What we know:
- The chain has about 120 residues and is mainly alpha-helical.
- The chain has a single domain (about 30-115), classed as Orthogonal Bundle (Arc Repressor Mutant, subunit A), CATH 1.10.10.10.
- It contains six helices and three strands, in the order ααβααββαα.
- The protein has helices at about 10-25, 30-40, 45-50, 60-70, 90-95, 100-115; strands at about 45, 75-80, 85-90.
- Strands 1-3-2 form a three-stranded antiparallel β-sheet.
- The longest helix is centred in the C-terminal third of the chain and has 20 residues, at about 100-115.
- The radius of gyration is 18 Å and the shape is extended.
- Keywords: DNA-binding, Transcription, Transcription regulation.
- InterPro entries: HTH_HxlR, WH-like_DNA-bd_sf, WH_DNA-bd_sf.
- GO terms for molecular function: DNA binding.
- This is HxlR family transcriptional regulator.
Amino acid sequence: MKKEKIELDTECKSHIRGVRDTIYLLDGKWKTIIISHLYYTGKMRFMDLKRQIDGIAAKTLSKELKVLEMNNLVKRTQNNTMPVTVDYELTEFGKSLQGIIDTMGEWGIKYRKELLQNE
């Protein structure tokens, strides 16, 4: 017996599309971690950010920062210094992820406690 496809109303479809877009934008191992570091610490130089994020390669960090910048979540500022230094910070649009980052952090803390409790 073939099941029928459930028809969703326009509001549900819109929310599901929004979730899909968010997942697509934050996809991968590093983007959310980079955003979290910039959210909690503020403006950072490239090498300081690299030192803060365990296990990320410079090439990967550079690539992910470019994608985040392209999507208007991160602002890159090249300083007129010798040698040239570059700062990264969240844009106002990037800061709008505050609720998501806070909720993910809170859920992760609860999850870790739950795991440790069951061992």
